[in-house]
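Before relying on records like the one below, remember that each one covers exactly one chain. Contacts with other chains, cofactors or solvent are not represented anywhere in the record.
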Amino acid sequence: MLQFNKSILTGRFVVAVFLCSFFVPLSGNTSPHYDFNANCIKAYTEIISLNFMAGAELLSLEKTENPANRIPVFLENYIDFLTLAIGEEQSDFEQLKQNRSVRINILSSGEPNSAWHKHCQAAVYLQWSFARVKFGEYTMAGLDLNRAYRLLEENKTLYPGFVPDMLLNGVMNALIGSIPDNYKWASRLAGMEGAIESGRTMLYQLLDITDATPQWAHLKSETFFYLAFIEMNLQSDKNRVVELLKRMESTDGHATGPLNCYIKANLAMRTRNNDKAIEILEGCKIPDGSYPFHYLEFVIGNAKLNRLDQSAAKHFLNYVNHYKGSNYIKSAYQRLAWLSLLKGDYNGYRFYISLILKHGQTFVDEDKQAQAEALSDILPQTSLLKARLLFDGGYFEDALEALGTNVFSEPGDSVEYLYRKARIYHEWGKPVQAKDFYLRTIEAGSDLKYYFAGNSALQMGLISESEGKYTEAAHYYDMSIKMHFTEYRNSIQQKAKAGLQRVRK
């Protein structure tokens, strides 16, 4: 797919951009300006739907007809950003990052009295900050984040009612608010302030605007994407996830395609509606020529694994055989190993577990946990594994039955048994039994490396918060943050920190 990126977004394309900047056409608006017209909206919608070729063709047409319009340059950066965010290929990053400074130079020469002027530059910096993090350029990522923050702050003063800024400011607030406490000094030193709840509120306000104002309706899909990320990764309010999914399903006119399917399927899985997630993914219509989104294979593999369906194996194999990035590779091999174990194939389990140590990276929590299992050389307890998977799918009665009344010799297994019962009762709507098992998990597992006690403290905080016991909730959130477990530490602590922000208000 990058073949078209190489030819259109670099080389002759960059030369064409500069020619458009320096040679004055005979007619039309010859001064640099920002016109997010119908053609640009259509291109943006195609790009968000991962139809990069169609989007690039529309942008090329716009630049021919309106060469002084800077919006196409702004939108071309979306193609690079999504290519890197989804494909995660180092070679793409090395090739495409040269476009960043070219685009910033062109945008900085735009119409300074337009609200789009600083907004477009901020968006480019913010997108490249995300991309740089993915490829390990943390210092440059921080600098780009700070540049984006400064430009947005300036635009807020100059154009306080500019609607597109709400998208970037919402994301920026959530991002800065989720920085771990031990790194907060860096954001304060840079003068950046933000809170997850502020970002979330701003994005919901923007969603309302996209419903009420046709002029901004095209921002709906991207707003849904960032809200889904916040609700699934930085918050723990199941009701908000349910409402967001309902809102997506009842809304017409926003972009369709792989990203839309990904968001809806993940929201369904987060609400333990596993069968619905499979239905969404199997019914997803991916247009010919769209950028390959191999991660969907991993997602549907997970959903099928949650109901102990052996057909999940083909999806994980498709993922590891076709995806050229490095995230979730170890996790995919771990799940292939689990599928072997569930059918009693111990040789198959050991084969796939051995591949974990040879492939992928340990950047995301799921891959770290897979690596830990491979290094431990401990065979998972089948009853615990079945209970875990069935619980993730929302099959609570089956999960409880799978647990049985087993007695385990390993301390970690004994703590997990308590934890699995707590989680099943909690999601099943039985908080009294859940709290009992959460407290027993914390007592038995707070000194172990496993995440069971840490997440139990987080869940106790959520229950206390839902009951209006905010002091008690803060106690459990703080407890979760201070525990020294290693598995899923980042995601659990981000949610605990978000909980602390809420209850301290």
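The chain has 28 helices and no strands.
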